[in-house]
Mediator of RNA polymerase II transcription subunit 28
Amino acid sequence: MIGCVMALEAALLPCLPARELQAIDRSPHPSHQIDVERHARDFMEAAKKLQLYFIGLQREDKPTMSETLRKDIAMMEEELKVKDELIKKQERLIQGWRKELKDQAEKHNTELERV
C-alpha cells in the first residue's frame, strides 16, 4: 500500500504547474517566491492527506488482533458444539447396542437354561 502511495506521489509531482513555477522562480519579486513555496506546500499537504487516506484504508481491510482472535474462538466454539453433538449421538448409539447385546445375551441364557 505504501508503494502505491509513493507511486501516486511520483505521478502527481509533475502535475505542479511547472512552467508557471519556473517563471515565478526566476522572477526577482519576493512575493513570487512565496507563491512557489505555497504551491509546493499545498501539493505536499494534499499528498500527505492521500497517503493518510490510503493507510487508513489498509488498516480497515486488516482486522485487528483481537478481532482475529474473537473469530478464531467463535469458530472453535462452533466446532466444539458440533463435535459434542456427534459424541452424544455416538454415545446413544453405543447404549442402544449395549441394550441389544444384553437382551440377546439374556435370550440366549434363557434358551440354554431350558435345555
